[in-house]
Amino acid sequence: MAESNMDFATLMKDDTGGIAGTMAAGREYLGDGDASRLLPDVGHTIDSVPVAELPDKRWFQKSYGRAVAEKPEDLLVGKGLFYLTEQRQLFLDCTGGHYQMTWGYEQPELTAALLDGIQRGIIWDNHSNIPSAPVKRLAGRLVEVANPGADPTALLEDDERLNTVLTGCATGTVACGAGIKMQLLYYEQNKSEAGAPVFVTMDGNYHGSDIFAQRLRGMWSQYFTNLEVVMVQPTDGEELERVFGEYGERIAGFWAEPVLMNREAILLEPEYLQLARRLCDATGALMAIDEIQTCFWFPEIMMFHRFGIVPDLVILGKGMTAGFHPLAAVVYKGKYDTLAQYDAISTNGNAALPAYLALANIALIQRDAERIAAAGEYYHRKMTELAGQFSNVLVGARGISHMTGLKFHRVDDAIAFHRAAVAIGLWLRVHAYHEGHSTILTKFALPLDEQVADYAVGTYAELLGAL
Ligand SMILES: Cc1ncc(COP(=O)(O)O)c(C=O)c1O
Questions:
Q1: Which residue's alpha carbon is at the smallest distance from atom 7 of ligand 1?
Q2: Cα(10) to centroid of ligand 1, in Å?
Q3: pLDDT tens string 411-467
Q4: How far, in Å, CA of 120 to CA of 306, rounded?
Q5: Domain spanning 369-465: CATH 3.90.1150.10
Q6: The pTM of the whole model exceeds 0.90
Q7: Where are the domains of the chain?
Q8: Which of 33, 190, 230, 338 is most buried, judging by how many CB atoms fall within 10 Å of its CB?
Q9: Beta-bridge partner residues of 75
Q10: Do the two domains 116-367 and 369-465 of this chain adopt the same fold?
């Protein structure tokens, strides 16, 4: 009988078993991710985990490490809020796996749901136009979450409500692209006589990595004609009124993220979005709220509820499947359901297994809603107190709940703080590479509790004191 070529050693070219060994030891060390045991070790090298020869990044693009010669701190294994690097250093991940692993690295109930789903025959991801039960069930759950307490029969018939879901999107970029196309098509069908369409976006926005999404943040402008993008400052209501006054009916779409995680965690004010809602209504512009960062990170699951508005389009992604790719979605008012089938789906966007995980994710968040709210408030309050304590270095705390940043007076301090934090095992981000940006960013996964919050904020205090 031919030998199997499907074992880990062959797939990973792990001839000596070194990779399997280091991963197994790493997992054993992390155990169930218990913070009381792991926090004292954060930043340390864990010697019980053997060093292994791991694949390098030589085939990657330059911007992704092709030229990196020193040993990378890439990820080996993770559990809960913690992960070990290939160099066996223990990190506390203050960013939820770069903003998308809602429950951190491996949540046992999600893993159990995943395995149970597979056992029951839920397929991974088939082509978009023959959806299976979990995808249809998820569409229903998303409509419920978007319209809490609403009567489903009345909702189904009311095209002024958020009663339609496009689930056939693999990533947030594709979902944002679908939203843009809905805005353009609506414009073409109803307002094209007004002239070239205008998109109003926030300065510092991030709606994805394709060319149109990048155009919305100011790139590639020389290649776009018959279209204008006007960027406004988040929270400046007067400017927004001026822009809507100037462009009026030419505005096809308004785009906003409740928390600008690509711009120093700026939190939009309810009054600002309420004003935007009124201006969109007055000019016939479609309001898109991009919740790819905020969705599945708050007890309400969709954060727009906190702003006293109902958007025309809500974009979901990232945290929806807790980091189990791929799935993103647009939840929108039925009256904008104008795209043809192949105008807005991606081949890998009808993902039954991720949809099942998204259902489990909703269940976990709803079950833990109170605890999540309390932990988020606690962390943000501690960060605000910290900013007061170090007002010589810090302008203030930014963002909300688990998604909190610290704005520095000086860019150099923000960069130095970031470097020092990473060196001692706190994985967080810094926005300091655009004019005026000087903020460190965190987005803790939902298992965050007071113990971890105290540890993190206490360590930030030490780092601030040493600046
Ligand atoms: C607010 C926002 N919109 C859209 C996207 C694009 O999502 P994706 O990277 O899944 O394509 C991102 C990704 O970071 C995001 O943060």
A1: 172
A2: 35
A3: 999 999 999 999 999 999 999 988 899 999 999 999 999 999 999 999 999 999 999
A4: 37
A5: yes
A6: yes
A7: 116-367, 369-465
A8: 33
A9: 85
A10: no
